[in-house]
Amino acid sequence: MKRLGRQRWFGYLGPLTGVATVTACYKLLIIEVNATTVALSFFLVVLLTAASQGIGPAILASIAGMLCLNFFFLPPVGTFTIYDPQNWVALCAFLVTAIIASQLSSAARRRAREAEKSREEVWKLYQLSRAIIITPDPETAVSTISRQVREVFEITNCEVFTPDESGRLEELPATSASPPPVSEKLLREVFERGELRIDTAHNSTYAPLKVGVRVTGVLFLTSGLMEAGTIEAISGLVALALERARFLKQLSRTEALRQSDQLKSALLASVSHDLRTPLTSIRAAVDNLLEKNLNWDREALHEFHLIIREEVNRLTRLVQNLLEMARIESGELHPIKEWGSLSEIFGNVLDRCTAELSNHRVRVECEENLPMVKVDSRLLASVIANLLENAAKYSPGQSEIILRGAIDSHRLKVTVQDQGPGIPTNELTRVFDKFYRGAIRSVKRRYGTGMGLAIARGIIEAHGGRIWVESTPANGATFSFTVPVETRMVSKPLTPVGDEA
Amino acid sequence: MSKPVILVVDDEPQILRVMRASLPIRGYEVITASSGEDALDELSKHVPDLVILDLVMPDTSGLEVCRRVREFSSVPIIVLSAKGSESDKVTALDLGADDYVTKPFGMDELLARVRAVLRRLSTAESNDRVLTVGDVSIDMDERRVVVGGNEIRLTPKEFDVLKYLVSNAGKVVTHRALLQAVWGWQSADQTEYLRVFINQLRRKIEPDSSQPRYILTEPWVGYRFTPSE
């Protein structure tokens, strides 16, 4: 307000100074002067004032100019009386011309200012629409847009209200600095009728957000300075942004559904293959055993029994994997930690995986005299079994798989190194995703549920540990995990774990 | 007579193990291959009496093996398929496989198919003008059909269909193969028409056409002619 007052005061002082300066110049510097020249000079001051300060100061300049012309230059000089009737006419003509000219000039100035203002608004709307288009995240779109509207149009409140499931108009999280003085009644009214309402008492505007003829929400603004057209444009943009956010959300949901569908059918295919194969071997072996008319030799009988046991183990592990996956998925996996030894876990795993590892040489590298560790041995064994099976699945027959275990400063570290084709860099993190199976074509056996590594990650994360894989292409992959553990030294050295076939 | 030689092709080592242990005592000699390429390699060296082929294998699939074997050999092929992959089964049969068994299968079922295929092979070699399978006999020259001692009157198309089924007795004949053999290429997709036609034929030759004894339906795949023993 202070600044505005000074400007106004200057606006009126300026033309008076101008008139005084012209008068002084002609009076002091030039002795014989033509009244017409003086009048034209005053006229110039009037026009300049009108152009720069508006109509009020220009009229003041006109009157001041007329008085000065009369007093200082028209005979008799030094009085406000005029003898010559012609000079009356000239004086009046000056005044009228000056006033008309100032009116025209200030109108032009006003129009220019209006044009500038609407140009600015168009620019702001453009900025807003750009901001809406580049807002990538549908979740934060509304708050981003609201912030943009507040920043671009310099207003205090911009809130978006949309109906929730029950039809109540709820404010979307837009977070203005201060809670807006919103009238529920007006909101409802605008939403139902789809017409713009201005609450002059609170200096606020309620604009319907329309997509076509459908009202999708209400935009609340606190600002008295905006024109209806601008508000309409803003609400149009916001409505568009809301609709876009809604579509994007729907799209991502559809995409998620599609992906989970794909995963499900992939799972179904591989689970059905993994179930069917052991069932086939078991059924064939059992059929043979039940065939009373044939004289099986001891060796064949033993072979059938072995096959049945191995395949039952395989089925058991598959079912265990499925259950474990389900438990990880539902967040039900809670490690039960007890004192155990790493060599015991290794021994257990190697026993369990005899069939899977029968085509490979497994070398165990584990220090002697390792301390006891407090872990969930069953779960860790399951992780190591999955890593070994994975190594066997993806590396050529008869190649070596190295299983290493170490315990240092309360951390247990296990690595499984294979001599397979390795894993491309872009797949290094994805291999731990559920149902992900390596894309390498050269490996012989590509089946499997794609659950093993996902389960391994789930278990290790439940232990507060970390699992990762390093690989140099064509040079094998090394899977490692670390888990924080409590350790306790035992007095008696443990039986060392030797090389196992 | 030497033992028939069976080549078993499967990428599952456990299934190969069961076959290696159980087939010899049932009177067959077994050789195994754990991939499609190995199988083709083996077949190029010596042709066995029968091939048992898994359809789902990495690298070279069973279908591909089937197609490539048929380029140089007519060795009988029984494919192992998974339930729910009917289209693969039909494709394999159309490519020249003789029969299929669905995993998980019983040993007896597999051996019955093996015997049927091998038997058909030995009878097919006889070059009689009268085709007799069980109590069904077909006189090729006079186009006469006798079932269980009664002569049956058939239309020319019905005769052709029955002749095709009987000459492939014990083997699954796919819809497509039957339609092509009797009506020609352009009719290969008219399975609905074939269904009606087979019902007609059953009414003429079956004692009870609602429970067929000779012309059995293989769901989604085709038909199989089984002579009553």
What does this 3D model show about the protein?
- The complex is a heterodimer of chains A (501) and B (229).
- In chain A, 54% of the residues lie in helices and 15% in strands.
- A 5-stranded antiparallel beta sheet of chain A has the order 2-1-5-4-3, with helices on both faces.
- Chain A is an alpha+beta fold.
- Chain B has 8 helices and 12 strands.
- In chain B, the strands form 3 sheets. Chain B has a 5-stranded parallel beta sheet, sandwiched between helices. A 4-stranded antiparallel beta sheet of chain B has the order 6-7-8-9, covered by helices on one side.
- In chain B, helix 2 (36-45) packs parallel to helix 3.
- The radius of gyration of chain B is 18 Å and the shape is globular.
- The interface between A and B is medium-sized, with 32 and 26 residues.
Write out key terms for the chains shown.
heterodimer, A: 501 residues, alpha+beta, Beta-Lactamase, 4 domains, 5-stranded antiparallel beta sheet, 5-stranded mixed beta sheet, 11 helices, 54% helix, rod-shaped, B: 229 residues, alpha/beta, Rossmann fold, Arc Repressor Mutant, subunit A, 2 domains, 5-stranded parallel beta sheet, 4-stranded antiparallel beta sheet, 12 strands, 23% strand, globular
What is the radius of gyration of chain B?
18 Å
State the CATH topology of the largest domain in chain B.
Answer: Rossmann fold
Low-confidence stretches of chain A: 439-447
Distance between the termini of chain B: 25 Å
* Beta strands of chain A, count: 13
Shape of chain B: globular
**Which value, in Å, is the CA radius of gyration of chain A?**
45 Å
User: Mean pLDDT score of chain B, rounded?
Assistant: 85
Largest sheet of chain A: 5 strands, antiparallel
Q: Strand sequence of the main sheet of chain A, in spatial order?
A: 2-1-5-4-3
Quaternary status: heterodimer
